[in-house]
Amino acid sequence: MAYDGTNFAGFQRQPKMRTVESELTRVVNKMAKNPTPAIVIYGSGRTDAGVHALGQVVHFDMPFNLTEENMRKGLNSMLPVDMEVLKVKIVSDDFHARYDVSGKRYVYRMDLGEFRNPFKRNYTGHWKFPVDVDRINQAAQDLVGEHDFTSFVASGSSARTNYRTIYEAGCRLDEANNELVFEFYGNGFLYNQVRIMVGVLVEIGAGTRPVDDIQNLYRINDRRAARRTVPASGLYLKHVYYEGDDPEHPTKLPKRQR
Fold it and tell me: Of the chain's two ends, which shows fewer C-beta atoms within 10 Å, N or C?
């Protein structure tokens, strides 16, 4: 599914807050004629308030049979305009949208205009200083591999360990839209990890950090040294991988790291 995160307080259900999970739960149960017990939605992971999704994955147990296409059309006819079900697939009883994940791909869009564009403010971050994309990509290679990302995780994380593996990390200049487009693919990401990594990389690109500073952040393991967390508005969950989707990186995130 896809959603515009602007008017959501994140994915996870919260009391008296509009969330992706609560909206989808309401619609799924309405479609199933409000069964008892209620149908529970399981997502591949949480996205924070203001974060968007191009390819979030959820699963639930429907108490009666519908074709995949009728399910997709039925849900979309009842969902609000800032959510869309892109594809429906009937899966085995032992499939789990969260625990069967083998990887995730995130995109971050950073507008480079002198001032914040009112028409982009909900869909990009903003950086008005000159940047060197080659420096950013050189530094981004230090993110690739398995590392202790303690310097890149916000307080409040519930992860058992801060070790994660990143398979791909890079940045390109979208000249047509005057944006930097960052992309990261890994076996899992910590709380605010992508937004903190982008904050470090744009500072490296602007020359206010040395190009090898990520290696230094691994050594000191201090979140304060990473400094910046870029806004949620530029972050998109692009794709969620499951075993068989990507034969090069087939391993699920170990339970201790979830």
Answer: C
